[in-house]
Write a structure and sequence with these properties.
By secondary structure, the protein is α+β, with helices and mostly antiparallel strands. It contains 12 helices and 29 strands. Strands 1, 2, 8, 9, 10, 11, 19 and 20 form an 8-stranded mixed β-sheet that branches. The protein has a 6-stranded mixed β-sheet with strand order 23-22-25-24-28-29. A hairpin with a 2-residue loop joins strand 22 and strand 23. Bound molecules: flavin-adenine dinucleotide.
């Protein structure tokens, strides 16, 4: 059996696996992807947009422009029964970018290719075993790879999760839907409808000829490949006609089942993206959350591999991302419930549609659905602590720049915004980029509003604030050590 090695193997080269591979490669880790698909084609449309925080993550690495040119910007956020204005979200990217998953994957794959990440394409992880020093990973029951860590980015049916024995508790499906792309002889009505069990819709495909639609099935179905008969039956049940549907180029089934891995890490095995959480596509959160998982995990894994941080840093990945996934599951269950068409749910939805446009709920919900509200619990302190640092326009000795530009190489930054004050990072200078800058504006955080600008901010490579200063350096050394390892020479 042939054996070769890498520091990290990622099972699955979907959006999550690609993002993680890029993050690890930027940090100088020897990472490889194993992807069972032979080509980059994505079956059907799947995800249809990037939300503000996901676009910000790409901007933090200097690659948002590759995606932004391809999609249309939408400044509203859908809630069952009402569209909410999200244009006042305090972000340079205060919009959803309408771009299909295939294009998102193509963009990420291009970046990963530039970073020279090898991909074992057309290969499947079929088994693995872990020992004290690493993981032996079996491809197609024949070839073996050795790595220090294996990350399962292998989607909702994750083999990595199952073989690692990580439980996947949650809610069984209550409703199943068929999603399709097809020709239709008769013109269907476009737009959303609320059926007894849930929402359904048909709309024109971008090619101007075909249609794309989602219909609720009358009875809960699971697994298996749905056939033309089932699509015909579901359309007739919903619309009294199948509109002469034919030439079906994509037909797939999804449900409202919601499940989450009870551990995102078990020893040398980690999970991210759909492998760690599945839920209904209502709210369009899956891919976006997977990208955020990857960016939270990448720098931590890199630091542990390089011996900068102790292994326990990896536990913070679960501690920070599991609550985000748990909240996501709850919100998609709520959206699915509110989309039912029975009289009582309709009354509730109409009531909520009155409440949600009010300022506070609107700001809360639009930030939530954008991923801009994520707050990791790093203790008491300035409201920015644990939250994502906004992309401030700052001026450094080199001229005007932005905070996100400082993060392009995925290294931690100590941003000194005060004119006085000596921030001593002796012992961490090899890891932390110290930048003196001025900032003239006001700092505004999603939902919270305007906050006092800290005198200094320690920014993690994922863009979250690990420490903030108020004219002094109390707690800075502790934060540096907690997140970026002990100082040199100790
Ligand atoms: C109809 C629909 C609409 C959606 N709409 C949205 C939306 O609007 N917004 C949004 O954010 N999300 C949406 N999603 C969800 C989104 O598609 C997923 O959340 C996203 O694809 C998850 O990315 P991932 O990389 O974690 O997993 P996947 O995309 O599932 O990628 C997993 C990869 O692993 C590979 N793989 C699997 N097993 C193995 C193995 N053993 N060895 C090697 N490779 C393996 C697979 O081939 C695949 O490429 C939608 C999903 C559906 C079905």
């Amino acid at each position: 059996m042939q054996i070769s090695g890498h520091e990290v193997i990622i099972a699955g080269g979907g959006p999550t696996g690609l993002m993680l591979a890029g993050e690890l490669a930027l940090a100088g880790v020897d990472v490889a992807i194993v992807e069972k698909r032979l080509s980059r084609d994505v079956e059907g449309s799947r995800a249809g947009g990037l939300h503000p925080r996901a676009i910000e993550l790409l901007d933090q690495r200097g690659i948002a422009g590759r995606f932004a040119l391809q999609g249309k910007k939408h400044y509203v956020v859908p809630f069952p029964g009402v569209m909410l204005n999200g244009a006042d979200r305090p972000s340079r990217h205060n919009y959803t970018l309408a771009i299909w998953q295939a294009e998102i994957e193509k963009g990420l794959a291009g970046w990963v290719c530039e970073l020279a990440v090898p991909t074992y394409r057309g290969r499947e992880v079929t088994d693995f075993s872990e020992d004290d020093n690493g993981v032996d990973i079996v491809l197609d029951n024949e070839r073996m790879l050795r790595a220090q860590f294996l990350v399962g980015c292998d989607g909702g049916r994750s083999l990595v999760r199952k073989k690692a024995g990580i439980a996947f508790p949650g809610w069984d499906a209550d409703i199943s839907y068929l999603i399709f792309e097809a020709d239709m002889s008769d013109q269907p009505p476009s737009g959303f409808r609320h059926g007894e069990k849930g929402i359904y819709a048909i709309g024109p495909h971008e090619d101007g000829k075909r249609f794309r639609g989602v219909v609720t099935e009358e009875r809960l179905m699971s697994g298996g490949k749905p056939g033309h008969d089932e699509l015909h039956r579901a359309l007739v049940a919903a619309y009294d006609t199948d509109f002469g549907v034919h030439n079906v180029t994509w037909l797939s089934r999804f449900t409202d089942a919601a499940r989450q891995a009870d551990a995102y890490r078990k020893g040398r095995i980690l999970l991210a993206g759909d492998a760690a959480h599945v839920h209904s596509p209502a709210g369009g959160q899956g891919l976006n959350t997977g990208l955020q998982d990857a960016v939270n995990l990448g720098w931590k894994l890199a630091q542990v591999i390089k011996g900068i941080s102790p292994d326990s840093l990896l536990d913070t990945y679960h501690d920070e991302r599991h609550p985000v996934g748990a909240a996501l599951l709850k919100h998609t269950l709520a959206i699915t419930a509110l989309n039912r068409g029975d009289a009582r749910t309709t009354a509730l939805r109409e009531m909520m549609a009155e409440v949600m446009p009010m300022d506070e709920p609107r700001k809360w919900y639009t930030a939530l659905m954008s991923g801009l509200d994520v707050h990791y619990d790093l203790g008491e302190g300035h409201p920015l602590l644990g939250r994502r640092v906004p992309d401030l326009d700052i001026t450094t000795g080199g001229g005007p720049t932005t905070v996100f530009t400082l993060l392009h190489d995925a290294r931690p930054v100590l941003l000194n915004l005060s004119t006085s004050g000596d921030l001593d990072i002796t012992g961490w200078g090899d890891r932390i980029k110290q930048v003196d800058a001025t900032f003239e504006g006001v700092m505004k955080l999603p939902v919270i509003g305007v906050v006092e600008t800290p005198s200094a901010i320690l920014i993690r490579p994922d863009g979250h604030a690990a420490w903030t200063g108020a004219g002094q350096t109390n707690g800075l050394s502790a934060a540096l050590e907690a997140w970026f390892g002990p100082p040199l020479g100790r």
